[in-house]
Amino acid sequence: MEKKKKKKLFALVLCTVVLFVMGKSFYDTNFFKVVETKITSDKLPPESRLKILQISDLHAKNFGVNNQRLKTEIAQLNPDFIVITGDLVDRSTKDFTEVLLFIEELLELNEHVYFVSGNHEWGNPSHEMLFQELSSLGVVMLDNTHSVISNGESTINLMGIADVSTKHDDLDAAWQGVNQELYTILLSHTPIRVAKTIDLTLSGHTHGGQIRFPGIGGVIAPDQGFFPTYDKGLYTLEQGNYLYIDSGLGTSVLPIRFFNQSQISLIIIEGE
């Protein structure tokens, strides 16, 4: 009789754990959140404020019909400009129609959209067509180049490099002609620590480990292996500059997230 009770208790606990894991994975994979991060700099005018929305690692996923939930949230956030840090599509994506429609409608919300490529773009046989379509829609392609952006009283450098992990990057080309007195942001799909005077690097690629455990963090990340040092969030580097890693919206290899909810990031830079 005692054995039967123990078996029933074990079965109940097991079912509860399985249901929790399934429910948590479904929620984290299919419902996104907004992560807000604030940074201050004396390179911006006092009391000035820049709102940057970062989208990373969508992997052609949809949140609602044609990403309606995503677009609604972005409209409410009303950023000054939007940056896409790679892996907008998957290497196996054959039809770009839905992704391009999302970008077209994103540009209607905010005409200032900037893009750098990720490893999945370069792994896709039709990546050149994708790049051409994005450019023709009005997306500013920042692979290995830079742009000077003014917003109100603030003027910054926005640099970008093509994906590092597939060896398409050229930081020297992106750096050429940059005014080092301005606040400088680098877009790089793969997280990198740069020696040059770059104030903030915005990256993706890691998916935050995709599967995480409380107290442990990300289990595995591309190029870093198990228990990565840099998986998600804001890191202060040796020179006092910052690296921010967005854990992204989509998935790769395994179509699930766990204790690692899909996200977009709102980066707020305030002058001091």
From TrEMBL:
One of its GO terms (molecular function) is UDP-2,3-diacylglucosamine hydrolase activity. Gene3D superfamilies: 3.60.21.10. Residues 50-208 form the Calcineurin-like phosphoesterase domain. InterPro entries: Calcineurin-like_PHP, Metallo-depent_PP-like, Metallophosphoesterase_sf. One of its GO terms (cellular component) is membrane. It comes from the Bacteria. The keyword Hydrolase applies. The keyword ATP-binding does not apply. One of its GO terms (biological process) is lipid A biosynthetic process. Keywords: Hydrolase, Metal-binding. Pfam families: Metallophos. SUPFAM superfamilies: Metallo-dependent phosphatases (SSF56300). This is Metallophosphoesterase. It comes from Natronobacillus azotifigens.
